[in-house]
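Annex B. Sample input.
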Amino acid sequence: KCPMCRETLQGAHCYCPDHYEFDTDHSICVDINECKYNEYCDQLCENHDGSYECNCEEGYSNNGTKGRCLANNRDTARIIFANYNNIQLYSLNGRNLVEPHLVNGSQIETLDFDIKNNSVCWVNFVKSTESNLKCVSLLDPSHTWQIHTHHKLTSVSHVARDWVGDNWYFADDVKETIFLCSGNGVHCVNIINIDIKRPKSLALDPTRG
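Annex B, continued. Sample output.
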C-alpha cells in the first residue's frame, strides 16, 4: 500500500510526505528525527511528529533563518594564541587587535580563556624548577596577576578553566596525571593518575558540571 503515489516514466512511485521516511520494511512512513542530524539546528533541537523546532542557547538568538543562532553580544570575534614568548590577540580577518602583542611571557605552552573574568590565563615557565599561573585582563591588558598553585606546574602540558565551578584543570605529561586546583590555587587534588599515558591536552565543558 502506497502512503502517497505519483506516476513516473518508470511507473507508479511510492513516497512519504515531508519529514517522514519509510521504515526498514518499506511498508509505512515514520517520522524523521531531524534532531539526530546537525544540519537542521545550530544549537537546541526538539523533534515533533512530522516537524521539528529549533531554539538557541542563552545568550544567542535566531537570526531570521530557521535553525541558525547568533550571539546577542556582537563584539568582534577574537582568536587568542600563544607564540612561545608572548600571547597575541587577533580578529577573525587576521588583524592584530593589540600591537605588538597582548602580553610577554616565558615559554608559554598552554593557555585558556576565563569567560567569568574576561581574562586569559597561561602557565608561565620561569625556569626548569619554577612556574606559575598568570592571567591578563582583556578589558585592561596592563592588569595582570599570578595564581600560585599548591601543585607544581613545571611539567604541565595543558590547562583548562572551569569558570562555573571556579576550578583549574591541568594535564601533566611527565607525572602522567590530571589534577584539579581551586580558583585561588590553594587546594589541589589528583583526579586521574592511574593507567594514563603522557596526557598532552584536555577539553572541559563547565556547563555540564
